[in-house]
Structure formats: C-alpha cells, structure tokens
Amino acid sequence: MAVDDFAYLPRSFAPAYEALPPLDEPPVWAEPRRPRQEATVAALSSAGIYLPGSQPPFDTERERREPTWGDPSWRRIPATVDEGDVGAVHLHINTEPLLEDLDVALPVRTLRLLEAEGGIGRVSDAHVSVMGYQERSCSMWRSETGPAIARFLGELGVDVLLLAPA
Description:
Structural class: alpha/beta
C-alpha cells in the first residue's frame, strides 16, 4: 500500500521535504531491566493525543506557518483514559479513527488486557503523547523533550516503553 505523506498538507510542501537527504542513524534499543511478566509498561503515541479541557492541543497553527517545524511538547495521558476522554490534532494523519478506537494510536485497552492475562507485570499509571512530525535536527527533542519524558517515565517506574507511531 502506498502512503501519501502529504495527504493532510498542501502539496506545495512536498518539494521542501523531498529534497532533504534521508537520515541514516542506527535504531535505539535497550534491553529490558526485567522480564515482561514483571515489567511496568507504558505507551508513547505520536498521534498528537491530548486531554481537552485540561491540556492544550498540540500547536498545528505554527506548523502551518512553518512547515518544517513540529510541536516538541508532550502530554501525560492517564492509564484510565478512554476514547471519549481524548482529542487529537495532527497535520500528517487522519485522527478520526483513533478518536473512535484509541487503541489505533495508544493501545491502552490492549495493555490492560495483557496485564489481566499476566502477559506483562502491570500497566504504568500514565502514558505519553507527542506530535510525531518534528523538525529535522530534533534539537529541542534531544535537549529538553526526550530527557523530560525519560525523567517522567523513570519516576513512574516504567521498565518498557511501547512506541505507537502514528
């Protein structure tokens, strides 16, 4: 299946992105500290999920003005969240399916099931949501966002972070 990276962006943005060389970096991997049956597991979604009323949405207006910029902030999503509790904003994906079934982008129901069946030790008290599209150098991510998320997950005692890319 072909993926249209520009389905939710003006076609005029395409030349700026297509001219960039591909990134060639090794994947990041760390061995889990304990077996999955004992591990505390959290999920990180890049679908721009937030909690309306208590959290601001991700900044898509600036991204519309500056197409190579992506909001580097993050949101804490409680483990008890359901579809009706969330909003989602993202210029690069259709967010409607995840608003109907949150597991599409943040598998909270599946993690709860794995915990109940003994497949994992326990579900973390919270998960993390970010905006998946970021500026190419990821400088803010490297210096602020990533370390802040790592500290937050460490405080929660998270052993395994499940990445749910949008």
